[in-house]
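Hey, can you fold this one?
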Amino acid sequence: MISKIFCSAVMVGLLSSASAFAEEHVVKAVITNWEPMITYAKPGDTIKFVQMAGHDTASIDGMSPEGAAKWQSKMGDEGFTVTVQKEGAYIYKCTPHMTTGMVAAIVVGDGAPSNLAALDTALETVPLGKNMVARTIKKMKADLKAKGRIQ
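Sure. Predicted structure:
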């Protein structure tokens, strides 16, 4: 009996400690920009979108790590959250403001995102706002380089 209680206590401790390490990162919709433009997270972290009046948030097809869950919020969905599980770079948009520059990135993990080359390839298939997606990828790569995560 004591062994079962001890095992249960250990399991509860392990499960609660794993969620205790996850962080919540806040991304604000500010006019037609996301602030910050680049968010750094770890697997299991949550991204919370605020100031969403007149905005949505959506992942862009082909612009996430392979096997990562896609997302699409409703317009004005204040406090919408996404939990990022896969390491790599995620490029996302506000659908109505994508062409005016409301595109940003989430980098998950500590090293260089494994899907950087895939982002460059997928850029060719972006039907609308390609220049804003390219700008975001360029700024993300410059920031990764400044942090010593890529060359």
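The two ends are 57 Å apart (CA to CA). Let me know if you want another pass with a different chain boundary.
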